[in-house]
Amino acid sequence: MLVRQCAGGVVFYGDSVFLLENEKGEWVLPKGVIRNGKIANEVAVTRVRYEGGVDGRIISSAGETSYEFYSFSRKRPVCNRINWFVMEALKPEFSINRMEGFKDGGFFPIEEALKKITYSQDQALVRYAYRKYREYLDEVNAQEAVSNN
After folding, report:
1. Which fold has domain 2-147?
2. Tens of pLDDT along 32-44?
């Protein structure tokens, strides 16, 4: 089995998360294979920008998922192991990379996104990442309140 190390971003803007609809009609998160000596966080930021046109910054790690599939082009099974990062979009603009096979995408309110997301492990990942994102925002707001006093 071919094992590929990948990285991706769970990108939030306010109470919305960024999703992409791929060529199979699946609603997924932006991710890509780690190549050429890159590190996971670089790949996550790059793939979010490349696949969705979203400029974001990493807030924290969100853990790892993996999935297996049979690659007809490689004629063997493949396992993708993805390192995920909680990210915050700098602005709500996006631009879907249709040349990569994406049909649709955008920022969706959390509850709507959870209904759209195709795979249950991605749904669980978004729930977990959203909790981490909200904790981060609470901490930032608390720090701002202290510095304003």
Report:
1. Nucleoside Triphosphate Pyrophosphohydrolase (3.90.79)
2. 999 999 999 999 9
